Amino acid sequence: MKSFFLKQRYLIDFTLSSLLRRSGKNIGLLLVYTLIVFMLASVMLFTHALRNEAGHVLAESPEIILQRMIAGRHDLIPGGYLEKIGQVRGVMEKHGRLWGYFFDPAIKANYTLMVPRDRSLGEGEIVVGAGIARTRGVGIGDILSFRSADSRTFSFRVMDILQSDSELVSSDLILLSEAQFRDFFGIPEGFYTDLVLRVRNPKELRTIAEKLTLKLPDTRPILRDEIMRTYDSIFSWRQGIVFILMAGAILAFVIFAWDKASGLSAEERKEIGILKAIGWETADVIRMKFWEGFIISISAFLLGYLLAYLHVFYASAGLFESVLKGWAVLYPEFQPIPYIDGLQVATLFFFTVFPYTVATIIPIWRAAITDPDTVMR
Amino acid sequence: MLFSPSIMALVLVSATVSLLILMAAAFALQVTLRWDIHSGSERQLQLERRTYLISTIVAYSFTAELVALLLFIYNAEQMSSQFVGAMCATGVLNINEFGWPTLYLKMAVFFAGAVWLMLNYADNRAYDYPLIKIKYGLLLLIAPLVVAELLVQVSYFSALDPDIITSCCGSLFTPEGEGVAAEVSGVEPATALYALAGSGVSILITGGWFLVRGRGAVAFAALNSIGFFVALIAIVSMIALYVYEHPHHHCPFCILKGGHEFIGYYLYIPLFLSTAFGLGAGVIAPFAKYPSLQQIIKADSRRYVTAALMLMLCFYLVAGFAVGTSSLTMMEVWW
Predict the structure, then answer these.
(1) B203: nearest Cα among B300, B111, B313
(2) For chain B, which end, N or C, has fewer CB atoms within 10 Å of the first or last residue's CB respectively?
(3) Cross-chain Cβ contact B5/A241 below 8 Å
(4) pLDDT, tens only, B140-190
């Protein structure tokens, strides 16, 4: 056993020095390899961070959202529906929500207006998200004016700016009082945008949703789990699309690796010839070449992954942001939470190291079977 | 079809490995027909040179398959959040009829590959390659398995439909149900424990006997394989329950979750490796009759049996640890 390890150690030692002797050629390969790993790893780390963020955001959201549908479109729901639902076993709490969108022509962006339940705001007072404050250049105490649905001008004083851990949702948010909201959008008293229900036991969700559709046939219940599942699928789907787009790059890399491995210089051939002449076997040469590939792969992989990590978690993934997140004027700035997942690393390994290894097997073998006398002559 | 990167990676690996193994199989056919170690012809020389390529290809392929097996299970575990009703890998494997066959085929390829590599390793060091026709014949048998795995896996992934409501482990691994999973869950914990202890002792005895006397490798391999199934049954029927600290949850996949400190991996990895080494020792042992292989096989099988015993011990220690540190007490109920 010990001799086995010693042998590998000497082989690695030899390989390293031979790699360093031809540093120019190998650095080129290393650069391309690192770039491939970097691109794929960035996409993976970033989508994972987005997925995590979505999960965090939704963790606090209500279990069931009930929307009224008219002619297949989402419509205002009468507050009377809360009484119609009555007592459903398993529902801890139910209430109506008021929220809507508002297009601000000044910066050509959509805001989300909402009536908070945990905060009471007076006449003409609003709280804005950090994205709005940034884009409109307002601070606490400043005035924002909007034109309402019936063309009246409303002036609001900014009381506070939302400093949420998750800017992804609060960036374009404006909070205001219920009376102001109804007045601004012209929503009659007793109507809500939708109803929310809180349910403690997740196993009862489906049954409760079923009861709701029976009691209120013109509504549709939306479960939080469903939203989460959709986000999960959508993000992994987007990631998959980016990967497919990158398949061309991976293929080019494989061809490049094949070419590099098969285009042995006369000097390298001579080296292998001498090694074989002094007693190395074909299997030893293959082993040496294996270590060569291993060293290059592991360096490129670690380097690429490290760069991707810095890119995603410290530079907010500047290169891929708009593709993976979608885009808008009021873009939230957020710092993804650093996280490394074993599944990702294994997947990345199969997208980079595995194709490289397969592409080099045959060239390596070709090099290893060369006869010493033909190359040394 | 779900375009998740892990699924694409798994399909990529299976497709590449199938291609490589088919290449190797074509060569294996040539070898079984035309190999003649005593000939000095150009063709024989070419064949001899090519064996190096094939050994390398097969070794790389099976290593990739091993990692892919782990990735497959881990991926199934992760995807459980995307399917209604699935709570762990069981639900995801249950989505269509190809899920479980894919897993079984992957396991079969893993064991077949491990045995082939051990056979190849022994044969390559003998000067006259006495097993060359046997091992390449074996490769011809393994190739269809690898291709089948690719096809079944592609069918499985392409038929993954997020709208399907699948059943979770709780409904599959329950003694009241039907099918193998239910039968296994229905095994009395006491029976499973005695069987596990019995198989452990018998493996230890045959292994020790082999190390002292150098005989009985085939018996060791057979007992080790039986021990593998006994261990799987024991996990479902008893060990898992102690991990979950719940007397009715029999799932063999939930133990892989982070919530249980990934203890499943510490159980399954030694168990699978031990069985692979045990099988390898049993398969190569009969070939000690070739004079050029006698010493090599003697040394190899000793090493494999030792490795198998050590890994089996790891499995038993982890299982014992899981049961011992569990807060579940079933003293009056089961024992």
Answers:
(1) B313
(2) C
(3) no
(4) 999 999 999 999 999 998 888 777 777 777 677 777 766 777 777 777 888
pLDDT at A322: 65
Contacting residues for A339 by C-beta, under 8 A, at least 6 apart: A45, A48, A49, A52
Cα A133 to chain centroid distance, Å, stands at 26
pTM equals 0.81
Identify from B7, B47, B49, B95 which residue to disrupt to test chain A contact, counting A C-beta atoms within 10 A and taking the largest count: B49
Question: Whole-number mean pLDDT of chain A?
Answer: 83
Interface test with B, best of A206, A243, A284, A347 (most B CBs within 10 A): A347
pLDDT tens digits along B101-137: 999 999 999 999 999 999 998 888 888 888 888 889 9
Residues 6+ apart with CB under 8 A from A267: none
DSSP output for B27-41: HHHHHHHH--TT---
Of A351, A368, A369, the CB nearest to B9: A351
Asked if the Cβ–Cβ distance from A347 to B57 is below 8 Å, we say no
The ipTM estimated for the assembled molecules is 0.81
Q: Quick check: B52 and A368 CB within 8 A?
A: yes
> CB A229 to CB B64 under 8 A?
no
Cβ contact A361–B53 (<8 Å): yes
Considering only CB atoms, which chain A residues are within 8 Å of B49? 282, 369
The mean per-residue pLDDT over the stretch B78-94 comes to: 78
pLDDT digits (tens, 9 = 90+) for A20-69: 888 887 888 889 999 999 988 888 888 888 777 777 777 778 888 889 88
Arithmetic mean of pLDDT, A88-106: 85
Q: Do A365 and B78 touch (CB under 8 A)?
A: no
Spatial distance between the Cα atoms of A111 and A97, rounded to a whole number of angstroms? 17
Tell me how many degrees the CA angle A188-A191-A193 measures, rounded to the nearest 5.
Answer: 115
Size of interface A-B (CB pairs under 8 A): 92
Does the beta-carbon distance from B5 to A351 stay under 8 Å? yes
**CATH number for the A63-223 domain, one of 1.10.287.80, 2.40.40.20, 3.90.1150.10, 3.40.50.300?**
2.40.40.20
> Structural domain boundaries of chain A?
2-58+230-376, 63-223
Task: Please name the residue of chain A whose CA is at the shortest distance from the CA of residue B82.
Answer: A229
The pLDDT value recorded for residue A192 is 92
